[in-house]
Design goal:
6 helices; two-stranded antiparallel ribbon; mainly alpha; elongated; 3-stranded antiparallel β-sheet; 7% strand; 193 residues; single chain
């Protein structure tokens, strides 16, 4: 993260009085000023929409939206994402594991031949006997278990969002997070020059 002088409202500024960015240019190492690149459209987005459907168009639009240009050297690069918090990373792992087990359970329901590949065992036979004797109880247990897993996923998403929101708000106090529009940087250059 960039360092600089701290002002009275807890923002970090460089020697020129501007806030620094949380990332640096990979070419020259500057973290002073970045803008949205001004370039002509290639028409690739429309072609992707017609040939590839909606999802490739969204991926292309996201890629072009995050491009920034260094005001010092003119290098165009993809703006790095803000760091995720440890809580958010843990929540992503929890959600991934729950969804993996859910996918595996659905796969076993859709393709019961896979379950036949498991060798016979006395424990498995006893569990199958309990399930066949009490199907309603097992259905209720499965319903409660599925509800608990859905609640864990929802709670993980909420905690992850709150954690990242607070971390980004704190980062915005100390650093710039969005590049300036091209017109804004031209106006500033005209007034300072």
């Amino acid at each position: 993260m960039a360092t600089g002088q701290e002002t009275g409202d807890r923002t970090t500024v460089n020697g020129c009085g501007r806030m620094r960015y949380y990332f640096r240019c990979p070419s020259c190492g500057s973290d002073d000023e970045f803008s949205v690149p001004r370039e002509e459209s290639s028409g690739l987005g429309l072609l992707l929409f017609f040939l590839g459907d909606f999802i490739p168009l969204l991926l292309y639009a996201d890629n072009t939206r995050r491009r920034v240009q260094c005001a010092k050297c003119g290098y165009i690069f993809r703006q790095p994402a803000m760091r995720r918090t440890a809580v958010s990373t843990l929540a992503a792992w929890v959600i991934g594991i729950v969804l993996l087990f859910g996918f595996f359970a659905v796969l076993l329901i859709v393709l019961p031949e896979i379950a036949d590949l498991v060798p016979e065992s006395p424990i498995l036979t006893a569990i199958e006997q309990v399930i066949s004797d009490n199907p309603r109880v097992v259905a209720l247990i499965v319903l409660v278990f599925a509800s608990m897993m859905a609640a864990i996923v929802a709670l993980s998403l909420f905690v992850s969002w709150v954690s990242n929101y607070r971390a980004c708000a704190e980062l915005r106090k100390n650093c710039e997070t969005k590049p300036k529009q091209y017109a804004e940087t031209r106006q500033e250059a005209a007034t300072t020059g």
